Amino acid sequence: MTETKQPSFRIRGLANPTRFLALLDKIMIPLVILTVVVIGVGLYMALIDSPEDYQQGATVRIMYIHVPAAWLAMFAYTMMTISALGTLVWKHPLADVSAKAAAPLGAAFTFVCLTTGSFWGKPMWGTWWVWDARLTSMLILLIIYLGLIALWHAIEDPIKAGKAVAILTLVGFIIIPIIKFSVDWWSTLHQPASVFTLEGPKMDNSMLIPLMVMAIGFTLLFTVLHFKAMKNEILRRRIRSMQMQAARQVASGNRAAATQAASPSTGPSASH
Amino acid sequence: MSAMGALFVRDLKLSIRIGGGALMGVLFFLIVVTIFPFAVGPDLNLLARIGPAILWIGALLATLLSLDRLFQADQEDGTLDLLLLGEHPLELVVLVKCAAQWISTGMPLVVATPLLSLFLNVEPVGIAAVTATLLVGTPALTLIGAVGAALTVILRRGGLLLSILILPLTIPVLIFGVSASLGAVTDPAPFDTPFYILCGLSLLYLVIGPVAAAAALRSSQE
């Protein structure tokens, strides 16, 4: 009794989905307001207030979307890896919900990163796509995200799917740095001293501050969307279990009716 | 250990028998290499330049296509349950099954490579290099593919999904395999550096593959 009375807001306390949902409802509105404010301020600073680049002109503003999206694309995978550990090691009941909610978000941020990079590349490099090491490894990350989502959708039972995806996520976490390294090797082998590396001039504060604000805003956005997606997933699983329960009841009802119909089969009248 | 030996012999026998499809992979390899010149033209200089890449792509696809039955046949007839309940660690079982799988599907590809290299006008040093890289690299493909096979073992049509999941993870092997092969024939590029990295990758996948595949098999059979 004494243990249950203590209100624990540790991670184990949140293992109860109902308590987790209650907490989400409490913090959701302030979180959304904060996100809107930070992204609004960030967009103003990035798109209107910040100076144009002396070489790139206004196209430099694409960076304020592109770079935070790239960070979040990698952050989402890290999030999924921690969730995968939660599924396999601690068997936390919300871990696979978190992993499932993070996968489409990670894919979306990766996609945003690739698309904005492509929009920037067309006027700057004169092409939509080059097989540069960074671009290629981002594309592979997108494919890995899509593969994980495909695996989620291939296995019907959410618990089994969660474990399978967790294993693949962990394997990916080990191999993705190797892929990144090998793509660097491959690219430098074919086009040495690439001019496309973005290690250029040191960034001025007038650009760095908007970028940081946008990064915080994107992180908040990810958090909001992640929580919302987790809530949806929990509700979806409840609906699923309710549907299965209902189907089981119908099935057992049918079976009872069938046995009743079968037992007085000697009687000539009723069922036929 | 004798149980593992028996498992190895059993898997080999099953793959050689009718319905096993051990030589299907080589046939597939041959047809992939054959259709490439139809697409890129019969220019022998061009083929000599991209020959190692064609051979690697062919070997990669042939290995992946034969992998989807690695655990599925055992799952269907109940052998997998016995293996899971047995006293031997599942990681070792996976390793032995991968070894048998490689002997029956991977090694024929390596043996066929010198002959197919001649079709592609690869020069003798290049032939030796491609064969060596495939000898070292195809076990890595089988081992990492085993993870995909274990993840998709309960699915009806897991073959396509297996390729989608595993192909991104094979990119490092492909890169270093092809660059070592090309390094042997083109002058400034080195052969040994990518070759040693390829060996290292194979060793790494030797660790990751059985552990992850065993974990996937356990979770799928719960």
Description:
The complex is a heterodimer of chains A (272) and B (222). Chain A starts with a helix and ends in a 10-residue tail after the last helix. Chain A has 272 residues and is mostly helical. In chain A, 77% of the residues lie in helices and 0% in strands. In chain A, helix 4 packs parallel to helix 6. Chain A is built from 7 helices and no strands. Chain A has helices spanning 2-5, 17-49, 63-90, 95-125, 133-154, 158-190, 205-262. Chain B contains 10 helices and no strands. Chain B is mostly helical. At the A-B interface, helix 5 and helix 6 of A face helix 8, helix 9 and helix 10 of B.
- Uncertain residue ranges of chain B: none
- What's the Cα radius of gyration of chain A? 26 Å
Q: Helical percent range of chain B?
A: over 70%
Helical fraction of chain A equals over 70%
Please describe the biggest sheet of chain B, giving its number of strands, its sense, and whether it closes into a barrel.
Answer: none
* Measured distance between first and last alpha carbons of chain A: 59 Å
Secondary-structure element pattern of chain B, one letter each: HHHHHHHHHH
Count of β-strands of chain A: 0
Mean residue pLDDT of chain A = 81
Structural class of chain B: mainly alpha
